[in-house]
Amino acid sequence: MALNSKIPQGDIDKKWTDYKGHVKLVNPANKRKLEIIVVGTGLAGASAAATLGELGYRVKVFCFQDSPRRAHSIAAQGGINAAKNYQNDGDSVYRLFYDTVKGGDYRAREANVHRLAEVSVNIIDQCVAQGVPFAREYGGFLDNRSFGGTQVKRTFYAAGQTGQQLLLGAYSALERQVAVGSVKQYTRHEMLDVVMVDGKARGIIARDLITGKLERHFGHAVVLATGGYGNVFYLSTNAMGSNVTAAWKAHKQGAFFGNPCYTQIHPTCIPVSGDHQSKLTLMSESLRNDGRIWVPKKKDDNRKPNDIPEEERDYYLERRYPAFGNLVPRDVASRAAKERCDAGYGVGTTKQAVYLDFRYNLINKYGRTEASKLGIENPDEATLIRLGKEVVKEQYGNLFEMYEKITAENPYEVPMRIYPAVHYTMGGLWVDYELMTSVQGLYALGECNFSDHGANRLGASALMQGLADGYFVIPYTIGNYLADEIATKPIPTDSKEFTDAEKAVADRISILMNIKGTKSVESFHKRLGKIMWEKCGMARNEKGLTEAIIEIQALRKEFWSDVKIPGSINEFNPELDKAGRVADFIELGELMCRDALNRKESCGGHFREESQTEEGEAQRDDENFKFVSAWEYKAESDWTLNKEELIYENIKIAARSYK
Ligand SMILES: Cc1cc2nc3c(=O)[nH]c(=O)nc-3n(C[C@H](O)[C@H](O)[C@H](O)COP(=O)(O)OP(=O)(O)OC[C@H]3O[C@@H](n4cnc5c(N)ncnc54)[C@H](O)[C@@H]3O)c2cc1C
Which domains, and CATH codes, for the chain? Predict the structure, then answer.
C-alpha cells in the first residue's frame, strides 16, 4: 500500500509555517462540541491534553498509574535539547535538524525533524513560563550542557531530574484544565482497545484497574501518547509499567507499526549483576560531559581502577573517535563497550562493564577553576577534588547518590562501572506529518510513535519530541481533521461497535483467567526478554533472528496454555494487568524480529553482524533500505510490509562518521 506521509510542499524551513497558515480551523463554539480522548499523561500526553483543553475541546485523559505525575517521563534525567544557541557556539535550527538526521543514521523523515528543531526553541520558553526550574548560570541565564552526537551545548537541564521538572510543569497545566472542567481525568484506567466506527477511531474500551470493570468512552478523535516498549526485553531502564498494549491494540485495528526493530541501547547503565534483577538503572548520558570512559589496556586486569596508572588505560572512545570522544552517539558508544568486553578487556566481577571516570575533570576542569576563583595558588590534589566535587554535585548529585545506593561504591572516589542496556524504542506507530496513524482519527505522540529519531535517537531528544508533539504540533494538526467532524454527533456507547469491542476485550480477559496453568506471567516475560536480548539485541544476525521467531511463537503457545494468573477479574489484580501486557509483548517481539530480519543493513541501533565495515562500524545500504518499514497486521504471525521511501533534499546523506 502506498503510504501518504502528507509532507507539505515548499522549502524545508517554510513547510511548518505554511502548514499552520493554511490548515483548517475549528471555531471556538465548535471546539466545545468536539470530544478528544488522550491516552497517556507523560510529557507527550499531558502537554497534549492540557493544550487541547485550553483550546476549548472536551478532553478525556487516561493513565494506568494512580496519578498523571507517575508517568515514566518523570524518570528522565539528563536534559532536553533546543536550538537556542544561548552558548553562541554555532548552534542553529539547521544544525539541530542535521545532527538529528545524521544521529538517526539517515533513517528519519526530513520534514518532521526540521519542524522538531524549529519548535524546540518554543518549548524552553513555554516551560520557563510554567516555572520549570532549569539550571542557570551565575548570571541568571539558562545553562546548557552537551549530549552525544553533537559538538555544541544545547541541552537544557534541571540537575539529573529534568523529566520530573518538565512533567510537573505539564501536569500543572493539565490540572488547571481539570479544575476548569475542560479535561476529565481517568487514573488507574488501562485502555484495552480502540473502537472503530466506519473506518475511523471513535473511542476506546478502558478497564478500571481497581474494580476490573470495563468502560466505553467515545471521542471524535483518539490520541495515543502511551510511551515506548523497551520492556519487551524484560530488563531495561524503563519504568516497570511501561508497555506496548495501547499501541499494539491500535496496530491490530489497522495502525501500521513503523520500524519495530529500532531499539536504543544506552551505553551508560549500571551493569546486570545477577539473575534476580527485574530492572536496570540508567546513569544519564550527561555524565559523559565529565566522565571519561576507559578499560585497562591489559586483558583480564584485576587491579582496582585507581591502582591502574594512566598509561595503562585505554580511553577507547577518545582513541577511536577523536572528534566526538566520549560524546559519540549512544549506538556507537554501546557497540564500542561491547567490543571491548567481548575482546576480554571488561572490568568488574562479571567482566561485562567498563569504567566511567570523573577524576580527571573533578581535578582539572572544575577543581582548578574553583581554586582559581578562590585565589588558591598551587592547590594540592585533595583540595582540587574537594572543590571539584561541589560543582559536580550541583550538576548530577542525585545520580551519584543513586549509583552509590545501588552499588555501595562512591563514584566521586572510584570510577562508575557501566554497561549498555535497553533504554528507548525509536520504532512505534507509523504516523504522517500530522501525527495521524494509518487509521483515520487515531493519532500517536511521543515515544509511542515511530518518531523523528530514525535508527538512533540522540540524547535529550525524546523530551523535546514529546513536548513538541503535545504543546505545538497536535493542537494544529488535529484541527485539520476535526474541522470536518463538526457535524458528527457523539456516537452512543451502546452502539454495536462499542458493544462488540467491549465483548472482545471481556472475552480475552476471561480466556486469560481460565488458563489456570502453572507458570507465572513474570517467567514468560523473562524468557521473552532473554530471547530478545540475545537474538535481537545489540547485535543481530540472520540465523539468530530466524531462531528467535520460532522460539517466540512457541513461547506464545505455551503462554496461552500454561500461564497462571491468581485472583479474579473484578478486583485489583496487577497480575492480570501484567498478563495482558506480556501477551502483547510476545506478539510484538515476533514482529521486531521479523523487521530486524528483513532489514539486512546495519543502521543506528540496528546492527546486523553481516553488514559491518572492516573497522566494525555499522554499514548502511541506502540503495536497498532507505525506507521506513510500516508493518500492517493481517492475522496471527502474518504481516504485510509497506515502505515509506525516505527522500533527502536538504541533507546530503553520507557514511556516518564521528571520527
Ligand atoms: C531512565 C530514563 C532517563 C531518560 N532521560 C531522558 C533525558 O534526559 N532526556 C530525554 O530527552 N529523554 C530521556 N529519556 C526518554 C524519555 O524519558 C521518554 O522517551 C519520554 O519521557 C516518553 O514520554 P511519553 O510521554 O511518550 O511516554 P511516558 O512518559 O512513558 O508516558 C506514557 C503514558 O501512557 C500511559 N499509558 C500507557 N499505556 C496505557 C494504556 N494502555 N492505557 C492507559 N494509559 C496508558 C501511562 O500511564 C503514561 O501516563 C529517559 C528515559 C529513561 C528510561
Answer: 266-422 (3.90.700.10), 501-625 (1.20.58.100)
